[in-house]
């Protein structure tokens, strides 16, 4: 065997003194029940172990239709490896579940030189048994082709595209957002300002739906450029706003803009105005009122759902997980103003 080249079945056959067909039968688990001496089987397995033979994943897929590999594809430019990143716990949950189920993970970057995700890049996920996807948007045509072909896939995060045919595990942002705004109402807040980014991804739409359910009259402000003028915040408080509710996204732009504007205006929370985040802030500040997004559980359950789809188990293909409330210290009773 030439140095540097991985061992092949032909190498095992030559060293074990058997045919390559025999090696293939043994390493394939002898599914056809071919009669064979135990000594022959042991010799083939021992030689394979000594050589460090690993089956080629594509060849294994062709032979058994299973590789025990699942893909993970993100529509961000890079995978979120910073522990402070909101997507990081998703990866932790995915890895834990994959390991517990005996699945290998294949990370697909998918980007071309221009930072875009082409249909050809997305098609490459077919080398795995199935694939997990996450990111705020769905590239319709290539994902539709995968769904139409029956390729198992699961989005991490609720998706409504393709007439609701995309399997997903997401967070119940609607209920959590409504509950958070209701808690502000119970504290006496009647004039609430809602701040969100200028983006219509499903997580943003779900949060707004929840806010509208609990406070139909809440005034919405969309941040066009990720900034909020200090005079705007002062004007809100002067006009009677007692609570500001802020959308959470993976960028954290809305929360950061509001927090900077409040600090620059010299306004304190909750004495001057209450502040609540529809999720958790992009900083490790445990004192902010909001709710916990179960990212880790979403990642883990997405793996379990994907494996169920791959193995054709009876399952519910779309799941929403509860978001537990976080009391925090930035929301309190509405201040009494004359």
Automatic annotation (TrEMBL):
Q: Show where the HTH lacI-type domain sits.
A: 7-64
| Entries under InterPro entries matching the protein | HTH_LacI, LacI/GalR-like_sensor, Lambda_DNA-bd_dom_sf, Peripla_BP_I
MF GO annotations = DNA-binding transcription factor activity; transcription cis-regulatory region binding
Query: Which residues span the membrane?
Result: none
Keyword set includes Transcription regulation = yes
Q: Which domain of life is it from?
A: Bacteria
Q: Which UniProt keywords apply?
A: DNA-binding, Repressor, Transcription, Transcription regulation
Q: Which Pfam families match?
A: LacI, Peripla_BP_3
The identity of this protein, by name, is LacI family transcriptional regulator
């Amino acid at each position: 065997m030439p140095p540097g080249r991985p061992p092949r079945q032909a190498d095992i056959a030559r060293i074990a003194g058997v045919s390559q067909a025999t090696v293939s039968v043994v390493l394939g688990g002898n599914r056809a029940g071919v009669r064979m001496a135990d000594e022959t089987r042991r010799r083939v397995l021992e030689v394979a172990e000594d050589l460090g033979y690993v089956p080629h994943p594509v060849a294994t897929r062709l032979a058994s239709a299973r590789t025990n590999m699942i893909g993970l594809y993100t529509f961000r430019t890079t995978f979120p490896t910073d522990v402070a990143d909101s997507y990081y716990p998703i990866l932790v949950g995915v890895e834990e579940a994959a390991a517990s189920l005996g699945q290998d993970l294949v990370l697909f970057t998918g980007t071309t030189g221009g930072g875009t995700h082409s249909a050809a890049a997305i098609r490459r996920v077919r080398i795995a048994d199935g694939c997990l996807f996450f990111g705020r948007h769905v590239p319709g045509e290539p994902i539709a082709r995968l769904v139409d072909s029956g390729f198992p896939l699961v989005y991490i995060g609720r998706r409504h595209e393709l007439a609701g045919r995309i399997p997903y595990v997401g967070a119940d942002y609607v209920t959590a957002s409504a509950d958070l705004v209701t808690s502000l109402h119970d504290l006496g807040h009647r004039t609430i300002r809602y701040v969100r980014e200028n983006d219509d991804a499903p997580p943003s739409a779900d949060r707004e739906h929840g806010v509208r359910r609990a406070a139909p009259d809440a005034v919405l402000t969309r941040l066009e450029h990720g900034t909020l003028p200090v005079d705007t915040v002062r004007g809100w408080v002067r006009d009677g706003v007692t609570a500001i509710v802020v959308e959470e996204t993976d960028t954290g732009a809305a929360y950061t803009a509001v927090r900077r504007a409040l600090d620059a205006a010299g306004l304190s929370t909750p004495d001057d105005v209450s502040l609540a985040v529809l999720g958790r802030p992009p900083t490790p500040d445990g004192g902010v009122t909001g709710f916990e997004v179960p990212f880790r559980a979403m990642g883990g359950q997405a793996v379990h759902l994907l494996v169920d789809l791959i193995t054709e188990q009876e399952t519910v293909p779309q799941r929403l997980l509860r978001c537990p409330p976080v009391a925090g210290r930035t929301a309190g009773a509405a201040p009494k103003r004359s």
